[in-house]
Design a protein that fits this description.
- The chain is mainly α and 474 residues long.
- The longest helix is centred in the first third of the chain and has 32 residues.
Amino acid sequence: MITAEIMDLLDASIVNVAGPDLEESLGARSVGLQWVIGGYALTLGAGLVLGGRLGDRYGRRRMFLIGLAAFTASSLLCAIAPNIELLIAFRLLQGTAGAMLLPQGLGLLRENFSGPELTKVFAIFGPVLGLGGIVGPVLGGFLIEGDFFGLGWRSVFLINLPIGIAALIVAAKFVPDKAGSRTVRVDMTGATLIAASCALLVLPLNQGQEDGWPLWTWLSMAASVIGFALFALQQRRTAAAGREPLVTPALLRKPAFTVGLGGIALFFGGLIGTQLVLTLYLQIGRQFTAGEAGLGNLPLAVGTAIGGAVSGAFLANRIGRGVLQIGPLVQLAGAAVLWFELDGLDTATFSIWDVVPGTIVAGIGAGMVIAALFSFILAAVDDHEIGSASGVLTAVQAVGGSIGVAIFGSVFFDQVKTGDFTTGFHHALIVQSCLLMAFLAISFLLPKEARPDEEQHGIIPEAATDPEAKHLAV
């Protein structure tokens, strides 16, 4: 489970350092690069809840194997793509395969472990998965700069083949096969509505800056808002008719939960977008190689790990919701330090050490929020709603990242046209600061106490001793 799901999550960030190589190899422009990076997150997020429901109906092992096979095959298609248009199409397909794969892991763990053993499994599973996003740019930079067998950027996709095939063989042999429930109905109307609404939002955000923000971009964004409203209405009607919706309608009637969705979109949009701009700034603005740009993400990753450890180990338990206010303030301090570091740079002698203090401080603040955010939002939902709520939160996180790539990429590349890379980074920091201030305001509306870690995975307290409770938790 860990191997397959890290491979899935890794691909969300592994191509961040591939910009110059894609431009040279396929003639990719800024919009193409944004789609290659953000398109994966878009289809991943839009399909996650549907993927979970398909696992419920057809069996999680079966959907895991199908998703893993499709993900491996689409990775091969990405690697052999002859032009940027097909690469974007294959990345969208890869994200869709990831959406079928990713939700099955947690379900399979719940099916095959129980009680204290399950708690221990999740204690390992969560932190290891967190490495996916951190390792992505570093591994991508190493593979591209190494240019093994002259493959260049194609190697970041080809590396999935041996891992995916090995994981398929092992999973087919060792993962127990438990049948799904054919009584579970899959709400394809809801899935189509949510996918179309996400596309209507991200498409103009990616294309708008390149095309000069014509009328169709504004109409498309307005249509996306209507689409999301129709989705909420359709989910309520589906539940009222006695059918199973994609999202439990009661969740959308909980103010703290809906506010939390907005908070996740704001926070992860800013985090993913800023990480992308940092990588682009190092490569395009300061002429770093792919490997150097990948390593340039390490200070941010180290800071995130430190902040997460501090938050998870004791801070969130001691001060409760306050950790969600301290984290953004620390991030804002890091952004301020980074701003002045960029202002005082000597471009002739620039090295990554010039921006390490700001990125580490920003990373610490981000880690404090990441470690605690989901648990505070899930504290607003009932026990039987945890599965649906977790899937929705993860989906919003992925789509928020895709929106962040579109917005921050557009902001940065708008200045790149004039050759003013530092101003482009400054503008990105301003956008991030606005998003963090909005998140800070929203955080005061979340529950004051977090839901315990084990309960976030559907392990209710009675599950360790009561067989019926254990069945309900699964």
